[in-house]
Amino acid sequence: MKIVNHRLYNDDDTPVPYRSTPNHGSEIKDLKYLVMHYTAGPSAEHSINWLVNPLAKASAHLVIGRDGSVTQIVPFNTVAWHAGSSSWQGIKGLNNYSIGIELDNAGPLEKSGDSWRAWFGTDYPAEQVIEAVHKNETYMRAWQLYTPEQLYVALEISALLVHTYKLEDILGHDDIAPGRKSDPGPAFPMDTFRSRIFGRSDDEPDSETYETTANLNIRVGPGSAFQTLSVSPLPKGTRLQATGEENGVWKEVDVVGEVKGSSDVRGWVHRGYIRQVV
Ligand SMILES: [Zn+2]
């Protein structure tokens, strides 16, 4: 993909779909950050229709659907209304300093029989769910997973935006409005994004050692339908050694050393929440 005149284009020079909105400010004078969000809505289309509605008084620069489709709503050099009351490192009102990306995702879910229910009433199967402790919270909750297609596109666009606009960092809405906001939440692999985009690209680690980037469940099989091991959740920063077995987004690992008094722990983890370490 590429950026021309603050609009996003595909590699074949076609622009990504654009929906204009009245919900924007003037030119961004000092662009520093990329801010990631989830929509907490039932579909990308639903969220886009809302963000172009003047009643919403909200917008974002991009919405990325679960199939990886991208819609632009506001040009990258124009203030979008995604951050609200927010602050980061002494800066207040991050709308004036950032590009905002919304990812189609239901957000936190509540147990409902065999499945998980969003606040708007839709049920999701266990395969789409991760149970994790939000970094601003102290208890386990369920969150809808992002799709691999969505994360792949989001990573490509994030890298393009960071390099084009020389952005200093990628932040979550939950970083700049903690307590008030919990998106993109523990299902979003923020540490992976940061290390892939800001890490040294000339020094790719080739070791098969990983660490968890969040408190992370480890399971007896490759999928969230499989039972968790008794040592779950693994604390953030737990060292893991890959066995080489993979299944979709799931990876079989051995825990390095001891965790919660147990050694020789082997199980399956979601690879969106681990990163390679040298
Ligand atoms: Zn948000």
Task: Walk me through this protein's architecture.
By secondary structure, the chain is an alpha+beta fold. It has four helices and 21 strands. It has a five-stranded mixed β-sheet, sandwiched between helices. The longest helix is centred in the middle third of the chain and has 18 residues, at 148-165. The site of zinc ion has 4 residues, from loops.
How is this structure best summarized?
The chain has about 280 residues and is of the alpha+beta class. It is built from four helices and 21 strands. A hairpin with a 2-residue loop joins strand 8 and strand 9.
Characteristics:
278 residues, alpha+beta, Lysozyme-like, SH3 type barrels, 5-stranded mixed β-sheet, 5-stranded antiparallel β-sheet, 14% helix, binds zinc ion
**Tell me, what is the CATH class of the largest domain?**
Alpha Beta
Instruction: Indicate the proportion of strand residues.
Output: 25-35%
Supply the CATH architecture of the largest domain.
3-Layer(aba) Sandwich
Low-confidence stretches: 201-206
Report the major sheet. Answer: 5 strands, mixed
The CATH superfamily of the largest domain bears the name: Peptidoglycan recognition protein-like
Percent range for helical residues? Answer: 10-25%
Termini gap: 30 Å
**Secondary structural class:** alpha+beta
Shape descriptor reads: globular
Bound molecules: zinc ion
What fold name goes in the CATH topology slot of the largest domain? Lysozyme-like
Mean pLDDT over all positions:
93
